[in-house]
Amino acid sequence: xxxxxxxxxxxxxxxxxxxxxxxxxxxxxxxxxxxxxxxxxxxxxxxxxxxxxxxxxxxxxxxxxxxxxxxxxxxxxxxxxxxxxxxxxxxxxxxxxxxxxxxxxxxxxxxxxxxxxxxxxxxxxxxxxxxxxxxxxxxxxxxxxxxxxxxxxxxxxxxxxxxxxxxxxxxxxxxxxxxxxxxxxxxxxxxxxxxxxxxxxxxxxxxxxxxxxxxxxxxxxxxxxxxxxxxxxxxxxxxxxxxxxxxxxxxxxxxxxxxxxxxxxxxxxxxxxxxxxxxxxxxxxxxxxxxxxxxxxxxxxxxxxxxxxxxxxxxxxxxxxxxxxxxxxxxxxxxxxxxxxxxxxxxxxxxxxxxxxxxxxxxxxxxxxxxxxxxxxxxxxxxxxxxxxxxxxxxxxxxxxxxxxxxxxxxxxxxxxxxxxxxxxxxxxxxxxxxxxxxxxxxxxxxxxxxxxxxxxxxxxxxxxxxxxxxxxxxxxxxxxxxxxxxxxxxxxxxxxxxxxxxxxxxxxxxxxxxxxxxxxxxxxxxxxxxxxxxxxxxxxxxxxxxxxxxxxxxxxxxxxxxxxxxxxxxxxxxxxxxxxxxxxxxxxxxxxxxxxxxxxxxxxxxxxxxxxxxxxxxxxxxxxxxxxxxxxxxxxxxxxxxxxxxxxxxxxxxxxxxxxxxxxxxxxxxxxxxxxxxxxxxxxxxxxxxxxxxxxxxxxxxxxxxxxxxxxxxxxxxxxxxxxxxxxxxxxxxxxxxxxxxxxxxxxxxxxxxxxxxxxxxxxxxx
Length: 768
Description:
Elements: H1 12-21, E1 42-51, E2 72-80, E3 91-93, E4 97-100, E5 107-109, E6 115-124, E7 126-135, E8 148-151, E9 155-157, E10 171-172, E11 176-181, E12 192-196, E13 204-211, E14 222-232, E15 238-242, E16 253-255, E17 258-263, E18 270-274, E19 289-295, E20 305-310, E21 312-317, E22 330-334, E23 340-344, E24 351-356, E25 359-367, E26 370-371, E27 376-377, E28 383-390, E29 395-402, E30 411-414, E31 416-417, E32 420-421, E33 423-429, E34 435-441, E35 446-454, E36 460-471, E37 476-481, E38 489-494, E39 500-504, E40 521-528, E41 534-540, E42 547-548, E43 569-575, E44 583-588, E45 598-603, E46 612-616, E47 621-627, E48 633-638, E49 644-650, E50 655-658, E51 670-677, E52 686-690, E53 695-701, E54 708-716, E55 720-726, E56 732-738, E57 754-755
Parallel strand pairs: 12-20
Antiparallel strand pairs: 1-6, 2-3, 2-4, 2-7, 5-6, 7-8, 7-9, 8-10, 11-13, 13-18, 14-17, 14-19, 15-18, 16-17, 19-20, 21-49, 22-23, 23-24, 24-25, 26-28, 27-28, 28-29, 29-30, 31-32, 33-34, 34-35, 35-36, 37-38, 38-39, 40-41, 41-42, 43-44, 44-45, 45-46, 47-48, 48-49, 50-51, 50-57, 51-54, 52-55, ...
């Protein structure tokens, strides 16, 4: 008896149903005979099967598959009423023939542990179809799931005293699939790879191991049902593909977040890629945990592949209208559509620009014919900019409005107070849509606060109200709305004393008494949230650490030194606009031990007692800090080449080390701050070793801050050292730190290391 080349397979759904509940019945065929008018005549067929020993190399592939867990073989022989077509209803089954896999009969065992079995199969004479099922049980029951399946085409069976062997190839039935990513993080379970968020990767192999009902790896070239893959979440940037055209029939496919692999020949060609996307969930947290799972998973515990995205920084140059050179200050303003407007101050003519944080490379800008360092948008989207100074250096006295990003103004208002022209410096929009300004009288050195009520297209429905706020010693450094509706007003911060003053539309007389006076501090910057809470950035006049603190509107004094070890914060922002918990970010220009700017991030989310991060910036000068609509901090700065740029800090629950690439460390007496960025709390971080014995250095946690390490150089004879950092869960990472022999002698590569923390903000993330 020999099978002809015509092969007809039964429907996958029929097999699945049989596997789920009819272990003793052939898949897709009736379990009772169909009546015939002609009696059946039976002949004997010999079926030989070799069952391998447990393989030493589970990844080995071979064309035939017999699971080493096979204990029972079940054979069905069907007599067909006609050769074609061959629907299941036309078949008359012979009773199920069950053969045990036992020695010495009907199987014999070889020295290598494999078994060779010969079964006497009874089959009707004529045109037959055979179904063979194997099981990992001695007595399959109704819930038993086959290990493998064979379904023949039409086989001609004749009466013969010497029957020919029945040849067949079993097809493996996957019931579970293991997934493993390339280059997994050591000791991580399940298989996990860490990548920096926002940076695209090249395609990487994905290892797939289909398993049968016994848990043995399926080593056949064909699968009875496809292996399907799915990526979740689908928008986090991990995509599937095939490295070569499919070798299967029907063909395998892989695209985007799904794949279907129909035979083992394509398993080695499955690839996954991270495209660098930054996706956010409904709570504005970065989607940093991505799973690649496989089906079927009818038994056992699924083992998905996991991609964890670690914290990272992305850098973008700001459009500067073709201008280069030094810029004195940068201000940023959030627009209602999520975009950011900015102004770069330059005595030769300032620059106004705009960008969307989702596409920061598309920023655009124009040059203004005057010098300014602040801007505010009104309720109609028009920009109001204080004209400090003409390009030639003469003081100007205009509040100028632009209907769009244009160098041509639509309206200018000449300002005066006390009979003298006023030069404006700062602007802010209040809760009722008024545009406030601070200004200075350069004749008698008085300072003034005023406001206008704008209309559409830069028109003005109320000219201006001017309120005297004292002498030059109380020069308003920053101006923000108090978020109150009746009467609306602003807070301003004194540059020379750090005093906070409150002015409203109801005030008419001079405002000379500060609402809050911290004492002996310079006012640097000011922020406000939607509840009216004020956040000043102050620098100590005595040279001590600066202070940043929440000041409840007019009721709470500032506590110097509460949060910040930085020396000169020059920008501050708060997220969210209203409500708690909140995150405060501030820019600084004098990092400890270096001239590097830094970003301070204080997160009030209660995952620890020390929630402050200090992240050093690869820059020559810092300007401002601000949040995008997702709560990610950004930093505005001049990079080492002098270009005006912004840096996007994407903080995930996977920690990474942030260290500027342009550190130039002298061989003695220098301190390097090393920042560790995350949204969870894996700290405190400690330094377990400095491996290079030729470098005299010590490294310790920054006192009071568990997300930073201070590396102190006292001498060096080598060009690099190796630093091992450990989190509180005992997980360590090692980073190389180059050491120059002279200040400014070298440029450095970014050093970033990553780890999975044990504490997560949400339950979807496993720990270290």
